[in-house]
Amino acid sequence: MSYIFQLKESEQRFRALFENNPDLVLFQDGTGVILDANPAYLQALGRTKEQVMGRPLNDFLPKHLHQLFAQKLREAFAVHKVQFDVEVQFVDTSTTLMLSVTKVPLVVEGVVRGVHVVCRDMTDLFVSHRLIREQARKLNTIFESITDAFFLLDQEWRYTYVNGEVERLLAVKRENLLGQTMQDVFPAEESGIFYRHFQQAFQLGQAVHFQAPFRSRDIWLEVKAFPSKEGLSVYFSDVTEKVRSQEELYRQNQDLQQFTYIVSHNLRSPLANALGLVDLLGTLDKSSPDYDQTLDNLRASTQQLDTVLRDMNTILSIRDKQDVDEPEHVALADVVRQAYLNLEELMEQCGGEVVQHIPADLCVLGNRAYLYSIFFNLLSNAVKYRSEERPLRVEIKAVRQPGLGVEVVFADNGSGFDLEKAGPDVFRLYKRFHSSQPGRGMGLYLVKTHVETMGGQIKVHSTVNGGTQFIMQLR
Amino acid sequence: MDVLLIDDDSIGVFLTERLLKREGFTKNIASYSSAEAALSFLQQAEPDHLPQVIFLDLNMPVMDGWDFLEALKPQEEQLLGRCFIYILTSSLAHSDAERIVDFPLVAGLIHKPLDSRQIQAVRTQVEAPDPAGPTA
């Protein structure tokens, strides 16, 4: 009696579980015929229990799934627990369900009596997963389609996203970046300009916007970085062309200033002389001694005019790199001698001397006119700023340093100047006739421009009443 | 009329000298190729030996024309009315004309080359009775 009672109770417990289970549950025999189905299942099918009972499950499945379900049923009957996921739209229903199906064989006294099929409706979960995947794909599409290079750094500076433009611009592979820190991938940038700006963005929580050279690729980048909870979103683009054309514009502007200076001084001076000499010549008696001298001076003036024009042509064309003459090997000692000869008179008047230690065969790669101008200006300055307390002495030394080029040291014992005070103005172009100070007007500006145009560098040391030293690195 | 030329360009000096002679400036014409030397001459000269006319070049390597004029400022009072400075430059910069107003000693700005008309104008200006002072 109590056994039967227990059995009934057990049966009721099972029924309650079966009937109230939110999962779709049914019971099939070996041929796939439905022997029992719970309300959740019937609801999914949109059928009554009567319409379902005794009919094969296949009647309610789309044709393409018949085989799969039959196969799984066979496996379950072979006393396996079977689990699989399937997307199914039951016959005559309008929704597609994503079901996780478990088939459990019911074994009584060693014989499989049927199979319980439990289908868990995973549709919502699946849909939200798919949504996430789709959004990720969309985001990916956006990041790939924007013209900017884009990457994400997490709080530890690890790359968590890298788009294709980054790979292209920086010549890197994203698999070598993802998961690595910026410092790992670009050790040269550690404490560099990019690092500093990104650190600022991280620390202050503020967006940064800057332009910087990316040395290893020899390009200029314009960068915008936005900090967020996730880390740093960084957008950048190649602005090399823009930067280069700005530099070019700046150079051309400098050329124009030089050009104006040359026209108003160097060019007009011999021309004005020539005009005057022609005027004079017309009123002179051919037999007078002045006549020949005037003619000689006229010849000299026109030659001077030609020289200036030739120099101008060089200056104007040298920066325009396409049609520059190749830099030539210029014997340094020769050029220094030429510059000296043009100032010899002044030099002798002030009792100065120039000592040069330049090997006769030492050549530098550059432009003769520039080199001449450099030494002419430096010598002229040495005379101009000599000390009244001692005779001027200029020493010019040049040595070739293998692999480094030629180092030229131009030293005088003149009045010197306060380098602290002059600071960066030493080489700057003053507007001519602007300052009433005894000015360093044009000379050092030209010197620096010439040195840099030839790919060199110039530095200056000076002590008040001690002298001035210019150190040039030429090629 | 004593004339002083300050110009570092020897051809320029030759030309100006000959042109002045042609126009009748046959008296003393002295020249200095450096403004510094000319300055020390002027600073030491007896008033009677001061030149009446100075032609001053602007673009010179050691001390340029403007530096020279600045250095002459302390003597301005003494020289005014006795000494007429004409800037004689090959430069065409407009800023030069604006700048000469700072220097009362500068009687005029002449662009090279000097010609007869300009020389005669200088002569007229220098020989004219000083409107501010007593007539000679």
Automatic annotation (TrEMBL), chain A:
GO terms for molecular function: phosphorelay sensor kinase activity. Keywords: Kinase, Phosphoprotein, Transferase. InterPro entries: HATPase_C_sf, HATPase_dom, His_kinase_dom, HisK_dim/P_dom, HisK_dim/P_sf, PAS, PAS-like_dom_sf, PAS_4. PROSITE patterns: HIS_KIN, PAS. Its EC number is 2.7.13.3. Residues 10-80, 135-205 form the PAS domain. This is histidine kinase. It comes from Hymenobacter montanus.
UniProtKB/TrEMBL annotation, chain B:
The keyword Phosphoprotein applies. Gene3D superfamilies: 3.40.50.2300. It comes from the Bacteria. Residues 2-127 form the Response regulatory domain. GO terms for biological process: phosphorelay signal transduction system. Keywords: Phosphoprotein. The modification 4-aspartylphosphate is found at D57. InterPro entries: CheY-like_superfamily, Sig_transdc_resp-reg_receiver, TCS_response_regulator. This is Response regulator.
